[in-house]
């Protein structure tokens, strides 16, 4: 990998929400992630880019993909990683979020990767930090910016492959004008909110479809079309984003039964057959097979879920690198 200069107005910022990003910043994240994919293919998958930096991983809510891929990404960049086990930390003795993060910053960390059940917690933490950069790993129903970056990166890569080329250097041109359909529990979904911001910024045309109880309040204020005929919308879609029914947020009580939700809004085998042959399906994971997506669809070649997980590492390498670098540093390979 050759040295890659980065744009000065994109680096050194917290990553809290896609809505904070300019189109240049969005593209920079995609292109830097592309450069880091090369590291993934090496026998020694490590670069010295963030040597000497310390990244703290603070997950106040459960996670498999986001936590492990952020920590792997930091290690691939040669950063040191502090992982707070919240369940056995002084949070359990009543230490506040502010005291917890200020204590960790006092140890000389450079970045905080935080997931929290309260919307806005990463923004508040960013206000308390003197010098550390904050990366939002998911806050309540509000935002999951790196998941949206992964989804766009993966879709861009898949469309490029369909066209027999690589996505490197394509910016958002492969996403412009694409019809994106987001289905399922949109009300409780931080992924949907970040996807909508990201796809709209990239020039895609976004529709949402859900039972009335699982639509967000005030969808008319969102830059999306609310569709009622799911089958017709699937036949038109280029990209379908299937969302998880979030049992931990009580999604099941917003529908008559999970079986009825599956029959009316699930990505079943019958509905997958309505899709065009080149349509793409994403799911942020974890999937609840048999509820929002059938096992056959989850394992279909058009379903990008495993590629989304693999791309989590280079995309989060890009996010950490851009948050912690200065323009003159570039990527050193
Ligand atoms: N997509 C996602 O955020 O997964 P985890 O909850 O496993 O991190």
General description of the model:
The protein folds into 2 domains: 4-143 and 311-331, Aspartate/ornithine carbamoyltransferase (Rossmann fold); 145-309, Rossmann fold, CATH 3.40.50.1370. It has helices spanning 23-40, 65-76, 97-106, 121-128, 145-162, 190-201, 230-236, 258-265, 269-272, 295-298, 305-324; strands spanning 54-59, 80-84, 111-116, 133-139, 179-183, 205-209, 225-226, 239-242, 280-282. The protein has 333 residues and is an alpha/beta fold. The chain is globular, with a radius of gyration of 20 Å. Helix 1 (23-40) packs across helix 11 (305-324), helix 5 (145-162) packs across helix 6 (190-201) and helix 5 crosses helix 11 (305-324). The structure holds phosphoric acid mono(formamide)ester.
Task: Fill in the keyword field for this structure.
single chain; 2 domains; alpha/beta; Rossmann fold; 333 residues; binds phosphoric acid mono(formamide)ester
Predict the CATH topology of the largest domain.
Rossmann fold
Q: What fraction strand?
A: 5-15%
- Order of strands side by side in the largest beta sheet? 7-6-5-8-9
Along the chain, the helix and strand elements come as: HEHEHEHEHEHEEHEHHEHH
SS elements, strand count? 9
Mean pLDDT: 94
Uncertain runs are none
CATH superfamily of the largest domain: Aspartate/ornithine carbamoyltransferase
Helix amount: 25-40%
- What is the CATH architecture term of the largest domain? 3-Layer(aba) Sandwich
Number of domains: 2
Amino- and carboxy-terminal Cα gap:
5 Å
The molecules bound to the chains, other than polymers, are:
phosphoric acid mono(formamide)ester
Structural class comes to alpha/beta
Q: Which CATH class of the largest domain? A: Alpha Beta
User: What is the approximate shape?
Assistant: globular
């Amino acid at each position: 990998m050759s040295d890659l200069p980065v744009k000065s107005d994109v680096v050194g910022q917290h990553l809290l929400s896609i809505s904070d990003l300019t189109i240049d910043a969005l593209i920079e994240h995609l292109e830097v992630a592309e450069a880091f994919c090369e590291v993934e293919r090496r026998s020694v998958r490590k670069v010295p880019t963030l040597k000497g930096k310390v990244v703290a991983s603070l997950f106040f809510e459960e996670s498999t993909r986001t936590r492990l891929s952020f920590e792997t990404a930091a290690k691939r960049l040669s950063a040191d990683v502090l992982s707070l086990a919240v369940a056995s930390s002084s949070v359990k003795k009543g230490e506040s979020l502010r005291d917890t993060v200020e204590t960790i910053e006092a140890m000389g960390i450079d970045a905080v990767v935080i997931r929290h059940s309260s919307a806005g917690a990463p923004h508040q933490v960013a206000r308390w930090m003197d010098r550390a950069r904050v990366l939002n790993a998911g806050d309540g129903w509000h935002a999951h910016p790196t998941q949206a970056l992964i989804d766009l990166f993966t879709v861009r890569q898949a469309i490029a492959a369909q066209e027999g080329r690589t996505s490197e250097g394509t910016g958002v041109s492969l996403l412009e004008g694409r019809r994106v359909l987001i289905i399922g529990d949109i009300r409780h979904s931080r992924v949907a909110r970040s996807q909508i911001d990201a796809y709209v910024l990239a020039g895609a045309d976004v529709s949402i479809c859900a039972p009335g109880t699982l639509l967000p309040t005030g969808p008319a204020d969102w830059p999306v079309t609310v569709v009622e005929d799911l089958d017709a919308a699937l036949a038109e879609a280029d990209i379908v984003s299937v969302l998880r029914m979030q049992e931990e947020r009580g999604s099941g009580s917003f529908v008559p039964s999970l079986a009825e939700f599956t029959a009316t809004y699930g990505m079943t085998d019958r509905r997958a057959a309505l899709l065009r042959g080149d349509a793409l399906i994403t799911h942020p994971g974890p999937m609840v097979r048999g509820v929002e997506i059938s096992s056959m669809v989850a394992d279909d070649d058009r379903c990008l879920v495993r590629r989304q997980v693999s791309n989590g590492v280079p995309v989060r390498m890009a996010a950490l690198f851009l948050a912690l670098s200065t323009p003159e540093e570039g990527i050193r390979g």
